[in-house]
Amino acid sequence: MSLNAVVQILVGGLAFGSVYALVAVGIVFIWRTMNLLNFAHGQFLLLCCYVAIISLYQKLGWPISASVLVALLIVGLFGTMFATTVFERLRKQPLLTSVIATMGLSLVLENAVLLLFGPRPYSFEGFLGRKMIWIGNVGFLANHVFALLVSLIILIVFASVLKYTIIGRAIRAVAYDKETAGLMGIPVPWLLSLMFGFSAILAGLAGILVVPVTYLTLDLGTAVGYKAFASVVIGGFGSVPGAIIGGYIVGLLEGAGTAILGTAYRDLLAFAVMLLVLFLRPSGILGIGEAERI
Amino acid sequence: MAATQKIRRRRWPFFFLLLVALWVLPPTFLSSPYYLRLVSFGWINAIIALGLNMAVGVAGQINLGQAAFVGLSAYVTAMLIKLVGWTWLPSAVAGIVGTVVAGTAVGWVSNRLRGPYLAIVTLGFNLVFQILLLTQVDFTGGPMGLRVKAPEIFGVKMNMQAIYIVLFGFFILIYMLCRLIYYSKIGRNFRATRDDEIVARIMGVNTVRAKVQACMFSAFCAGVAGVLFLLNYLFIAPAAFTPMQSFRYLAMVVIGGLGNLLGSVLGALVITFIPEFLRVWPGLWDVVLGGSILLVLLLFPKGLGFFGEYLSTLFSQKKIEQRWTGQIRSPGGEQ
């Protein structure tokens, strides 16, 4: 394999990985703050892509940046709405109920998209088209580099907000102990809904970044959602840095799987490694997850 | 549920008649093989839902990969018949045993951990299984699936009617087995584990064993159902064993009412038959299905089990005591 091919696989893997990291961070956030395993997270991504690209950009002819922004807002509002109506009720239910309910929600969202937009796959050339960036002899797809950089910036901004601002401190307090946080004057339900909406926006953004590299199909939501779950588990369940690292690992595994074993095995490696991690090292590769043996 | 147990002596003939009618009438009067297969498929789904309910509803173990267990059994059986050249009976036994072993392994591995790991492991199992089915074309036939010949009894090839009779017999057997386990010590251990694991341990229940047993029994039902699936259609393809299908099985259990056995049967039948009338609008049914799951979980935790209890009161004179809405944690009439 030439150097060019290896570098392209690496960059492509990292680009996909950063997308998975964005979704995975949302899943971990919802798990940590609301105690919910949100199987419907990938469907927010799907919804955002369809609204932005099909409704606003292609049908209404809005400029691409405006349609993406408006779609992100819509998905954020949608997430907040769901958080206050459905998920707020589920928070107090046993894990079994909430897992089944979020699976049900994912079914509703995915098929609502099918009813509204039809089963046809769409293609979207993204902000940069099919351009290549050349450094010496090595060429990258501009969309890969764009996805990688944008998600890195978002993750860094996100981490610093969480670490250094007062709202970030409030969120960490809520994740740690809701009751005490409420006693300290933090508006817990309000913050939880806000967090949920924000996680949905992260997922939507991930979708906008990944669609130019793949096609926009109905199973994009579940495909990215399951990969994000694999990332969460591989990095260490319940840990935000773990989810990010796990996302990059899954992306690289996917690239390597495609290159070494062929396209048919693209997904196999990530899930197989996920199962292996669960069996051998349940607290994640770095050992920072919250798994507890009994 | 308890109501069927207390069937009055005077009423049991009606129950028996209903059973015989369900057993004999469809193969006699449904001349179209399509509809007969559909009814059979309803009973197969009922077996799967019953097994899943023992794991999810009774023992509280979330299994998001039931379709993979069904598929494992069906594929092992089909591959043994087709590639190795075994006859039906040993292949079916091998398929069921293999599935039980797989279910035990999955249960044993994921029950070492506290938290939502079983859900993730079973989901991952189903995803990997699906990819393997699609890629190992030499063994599984890939997306085109596998086709087998109908079994022979005393040199006579089994027709659709005979297959229905056998299949319904298995359904009755599995249902009785589920009831037996539900009301036995094992079933009590399951429920204790679901309701409060720590208290159950204090009371001397080996909760890890109970969880593994639940996974094992659920896999056993899936194994039987997988063989019957193959018998019913004589054809299997990966599309029938996707994670989505696993979720439909879960939906049968939830809409039937978690922990309610008769409810699972009703849920399975409803979810098998209704989509046949909604084929014109793809996607609509799944929206309805997902929405009804949310409704059942949030507002009516008893689900169709309510009707199950009502049905069983027709055969006894017990009044319905519970209302629509009940406690999610003590489903279906266990007093």
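qc> Chain A touches chain B through 47 residues (CB under 8 Å).
qc> done
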